[in-house]
Amino acid sequence: KPIATIVGCADSRTPPTILFNQGLGRLFIIRVAGNTVDRRGLASIVYAVKHLSCPLVVVLGHTGCGAVAAAEAVVDGRAELDPSLEEMIVPILPAVLSARHKGGADQARLAVEENARRVVARLLTADTALAEAVDKGTIRIIAAVKDMSTGKVDFLSEA
């Protein structure tokens, strides 16, 4: 039985098994660019929670994320939305806009953090099985960001 489900980015370069020093089978890993969750990803998470009794879901973003950078370029008017990447970029646009609205020195990192938090928020409302498990206290769903230069993982508050 896995101890955690990791929803990570496809270009994060370090496999979560190595990042968290876990043996094979200890993590249920879902990787997609921008660590966003579509219907298939959601079904995979629900499977891990309901059928594998996985008690923790971590949405793991990372600094230097290409998907977030592409969304930033669209928001900033530096690039057009590429139709072939639309399904990857569109879900990230609100996170970039929110980070811009909040302001701050490192907008790229803030957008990555906001994206991870928004995916967590979506998971909390996207499926009743997940919401019920969180309410019962049988699972936790949290956001985290890996710093690509140090390898350090920061677990984020809900704010």
Low-confidence stretches: none
Q: Please tell me what the overall shape is.
A: globular
Largest sheet: 5 strands, mixed
Report the order of strands and helices.
Answer: EHEHEHHHHHEE
Please estimate the helix content. 40-55%
What would you note in describing this structure?
The protein has 159 residues and is α/β, with parallel strands linked by helices. The protein is 44% helix and 17% strand. The protein has helices spanning 16-19, 39-51, 66-75, 86-89, 93-102, 107-126, 128-136; strands at 4-8, 27-31, 56-62, 140-146, 153-155. A five-stranded mixed sheet has the order 2-1-3-4-5. The longest helix is centred in the last third of the chain and has 20 residues, at 107-126. The chain is globular, with a radius of gyration of 15 Å. The chain starts with a strand and ends with a strand. The model has no long low-confidence stretch (mean pLDDT 94).
How does the SSE layout of this entry go?
Blueprint (H helix, E strand, L loop, with lengths): L3 E5 L7 H4 L7 E5 L7 H13 L4 E7 L3 H10 L10 H4 L3 H10 L4 H20 L1 H9 L3 E7 L6 E3 L4
Parallel strand pairs: 1-2, 1-3, 3-4
Antiparallel strand pairs: 4-5
Helix pairs in contact: 5-6, 6-7
